[in-house]
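Collaborator request, handled under Task 6.
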Amino acid sequence: MGRTFLLGIDLGTSGVRALLMDDRGSVAGSCSEEYPLATPRPAWAEQSPEHWWRATRRAVRRLLAQTATEPCAIAGIGLTGQMHGSVFLDRHGEVVCPAILWCDQRTEEECEEITRLAGKKRVLAVTCNPVLTGFQAPKIVWLRKHRPEAWRRVAKVLLPKDYLRYLLTGLFATDVSDASGTSLLDVRKRRWSQEMIEATGICRSMLPEVFESPVQTGTVSAEAARATGLRAGTPVTAGAGDQAAGAVGSGIVEEGLVSVSLGTSGVVFAHARTPSRDPQGRLHTFCHAVPGAWHLMGVTLSAGGSYRWFRDAFWSPGNTAHSARRYREMEQAAARVPAGCDGLLFLPYLSGERCPHPDPRARGVFFGLSLSHDRSHAARSILEGVAFGIRQCVEMMDSAGVNTGRRFRITGGGSRSRLWVQICADILAREMVRLNVDEGPAYGAAILAGASAGVFPDVPSACRRLVRERQVFTPDGKRATLYDKLYHVYRELYASLRRSFADLAGAVS
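Structure tokens returned to the collaborator:
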């Protein structure tokens, strides 16, 4: 009897990844396809949904061919991807305009408007989060105000991964974890909030139905089967936003477990049995991909994104080939620089910031530059600056009553860097643990598909069976003491520059 497979599809910011795993949790293979990111104006970020679909078709077909997998052996498909983005469709299901992404910062006025109309206390009580520029609701209001000709055509608004679901199944659906980042979901009740829908002035019919993450939401259509090579009728699971799916793939599905993800953004993620929240709204409280559970999350927007920016803008500008080799060169150079970079600090606010400072006007800063510094110092200071930002998120979790413990599971592309993992261990003064699997959100999406298809009894039992701790990085006391001193300087920089960030934004707007 042949093996049973599960397909996880992760629609990331820079590319899509399709991953195939078997019912024992072994990865049979994965394929990725990249697509461009458009920044037509400062602080704007857009992508073409058509590029997503084209890349997904290619990645799935390549994966099936490379693994010689028969489509009928795939028991289910799980979807995940970048959160918060807005895909606007007309009544024929055609894309109206480019998708506005999670890292887009154009909607500051719309956030204030929604908060004023709904009331700040009610917003926090219902959605468990403030209305932030990255979230979906202010993007909807922005389009209505600034692109009325496009808005008149809009019939549906989808999150990015749910656009793939529509093309795969013909159905409009989302899941509770991804919907938590729209400012339209009642996070405690795990359903759309009529109160927030009315405050934004949109029609309920524009929103998809919302489901728990390991629930089937349609099957692959005949048309999608022809486009992708999948079998028509293959079940498609609700899935989850990339952070919740990544947490499933890391086993963060039970109380007392915390992860740090070093992806495009940097995320501290803690499982929670109740929807507790930070009174100031600096931490996110979202529905988890585990039914009946929630999670707290601190997000620094530009983690690996800052490192990639430096690589492309300053390390090897114009060179788009051999990205892995270029990262290795940067890491080797950064490793030769002493801890603390001889006094050079980096604020990773290239896309504004979310936690600990929800400020779309914040900008990246190199602080302490001298004639003795070179690009190797700058590269290491980015790794340290991101870790300092993550430390602030952890401290906020501690102050909110979360038991973060002394050991974190570390995931994401940045976790492949031994240097960066050790820097995180030293700055956070925690053991950082690599896992036996580090396949990211696509792996978690495949687990969700397996729970939906009956391959696994439920999500927690699947994670206990599949995910194990493998390698521990222990803090170095001497470096930790140095980083403590630098952290106090780092922490004061935002307060000193906050007004200047606002003045700069006003000058160039």
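The cover message to the collaborator said: "The two ends are 63 Å apart (CA to CA). The chain has a mean pLDDT of 94. Please let us know whether this matches your experimental observations."
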